[in-house]
Amino acid sequence: MKRITMILGHYGSGKTNIAVNLAAKYRQERDRVAIADLDIVNPYFRTKDSLDLLKEKDIRLIVSEYANSNVDIPALPQDMYAVTDDKGLTCVLDIGGDDRGALVLGRLRPAILEEKDYENLLVINKYRPLTADAESTLDVMREIEAAAGIPFTGIINNSNLGVETTADVVLSSVGYANEVAKKASLPIFMTTVREDVAKQLIGKVEGLFPLTLQKNFIERKIH
Amino acid sequence: MADKVLMKGNEAIAEAAIKAGCRHYFGYPITPQTEVAAYMAKRMPKIGGTFLQAESEIAAINMVYGVASAGLRVMTSSSSPGISLKGEGISYLAGADLPALVVNVQRGGPGLGGIQPSQSDYFQSTRGGGHGDYHMIVLAPSSVQEMAALTVKGFELADKYRMTAMVLADGTMGQMMEPVSLDFEVTPPPEKPWATTGTEMKRKHNIVNSLSLVPEELEKLNIARFERYELVKQNETMYEEYMMDDAEIAIAAFGIAARVSKNAVNEARKMGIKAGLIRPITLWPFPDAPFKKAATHVKEIISVELNMGQMIEDVRLASECKVKVSLCNRVGGMIPSPEQVLDAIVKASK
Predict the structure, then answer these.
(1) Within an 8 Å CB–CB cutoff, is residue B178 touching chain A?
(2) Of A128, A192, A122, A193, whose CA–CA distance to A155 is shortest?
(3) Which of A18, A182, B54, B109 could pair with B113 in a Cys bridge, judged by C-beta atoms 3.0 to 4.6 Å apart?
(4) Residue in chain A nearest B40 by alpha carbon
């Protein structure tokens, strides 16, 4: 694994959830892992929602103290420079949606490019209306890449329909993901799937990454 | 499967508006509805529409007035504090009998309040909101699918009755993501012979105006408007009844509160308590009939709301004070938990 893994993508593509899951996996292999929440676009659905879990797994959380608070201002954490300065730290960067979110990388860009130890990953979901086909996904990708100023190194296929995701939903997205990857000349880094659905896809999808840690805010059942 | 997409509630409103033929959107950013504007900013230029971020909410609603006068489907969206700013413009739309769609993705108040979900603009929406005698048609979605469907319905009803329709959502509805089908029938706008579309020197010019200085004439306009409102009450009231046939305890809830309540009703049934749910979909006109009927066979109606008790007044009126009506609520951006609603049901059943 690279020292820095950046997770970027269209708004609502599933970046935060993937970042938390990936950091948990990296923590199994490395002692010092951090997740940096650099979202300056959306005050909701932040890594802070997973605070207890990250503490339990001993993953450092770098996040603005205003995230998930009622202060809806774009703010960056003061310790974000640990990402580039602390070379012993393995970092997963959760970046805000679209090109507006990717702008935040401007400050870190020179150091990341100089160190050359990074993955820059684009999360895609065929079932989001503005990235429903390869062409529109590439448009979004180019906008994000231009704003970030760091070339992408791979694609994460996170195609899903939320609670209605089935094995067929994921399988129907493979052709789309391959087309995006081919047109962008990038490898598919992994295919992320909700854990219960992933079980049905073992051996059918390459690079399957089950999302074991999943937040469901609304349909909470009574215990 | 193939025809569904995964959308945020706010995005679903924007895309549904486009499907309904809306090509003019005027707005101003405010959490938690900003995705409506952001989505429109991306989509409108691609389909030959107009997206304009106005200099203020007040400017935006007056731009809506302009496009509505020209007879086209038009909308604006905001969240609670921004809707207050639009109040004057909404009153002018009513005074000029103009059809338009206004979306309110509510947040906690009063004042600037917070950015978490709330239903505390119930009074403001169902009683008009601005000055003068008027009503809006108020639609309350409780899923992302309904955010889309009621947006389309809102445009249709606005045109049919020359009224402002409001989609009254909340921060949860706006932010949550669910699979949506955008495949619905849209009734095209009716002829609008009153619209200011240019006379081509072939007819008398039309005037769109909310100023009427002769009291006899203004009275006549007000009475005619309320006759139209009566038609809306008769024809357009919408609600959902869930397990009400044999219910002994009824929940009254709309929007996100209804979703939480449905969970609690299911749990109560498992415990052997005959609970049911009445979910108003139109908040104005308010569905009196199911509550009047419920009052004949339930022990208690529990109004579950994200406010200090606003809809509860309409529930009392509709049930003609023949049955006990109690409140189960959270405020300030908090949502009642299914456990809290279940506790209220259990308490009422004893």
Answers:
(1) yes
(2) A122
(3) B109
(4) A130
Q: What is the Cα–Cα distance from B222 to B37, expressed in whole angstroms?
A: 34
Name beta bridge partners: B241. Answer: B278
Same fold, B4-199+222-236 and B239-349: yes
**Whether the predicted pLDDT of B93 surpasses 70:** yes
For chain B, give every domain's residue range. 4-199+222-236, 239-349
Average pLDDT estimate for B145-169: 98
Residue type present at position B65:
Y
Over the stretch A131-186, which tens digit does the pLDDT of each residue have? 999 999 999 999 999 999 999 999 999 999 998 999 999 999 999 999 999 999 99
The CATH code for residues B4-199+222-236 is: 3.40.50.970
* CA distance linking residue A9 with residue A99, whole number of Å: 8
Over residues A45-88, the pLDDT tens digits come to: 778 788 888 999 999 999 988 776 666 677 888 899 999 999 99
Closest Cα of chain B to A221: distance in Å?
7
Q: Quick check: A161 and B179 CB within 8 A? A: yes
Domains of chain A: 4-211 (3.40.50.300)
- CATH node for B239-349: 3.40.50.920
* CB atoms B8 and A12 under 8 Å: yes
pTM, 2 dp:
0.93
Beta-carbon neighbour count of residue B182 at 10 Å?
A: 18
CB A162 within 8 A of CB B43: no
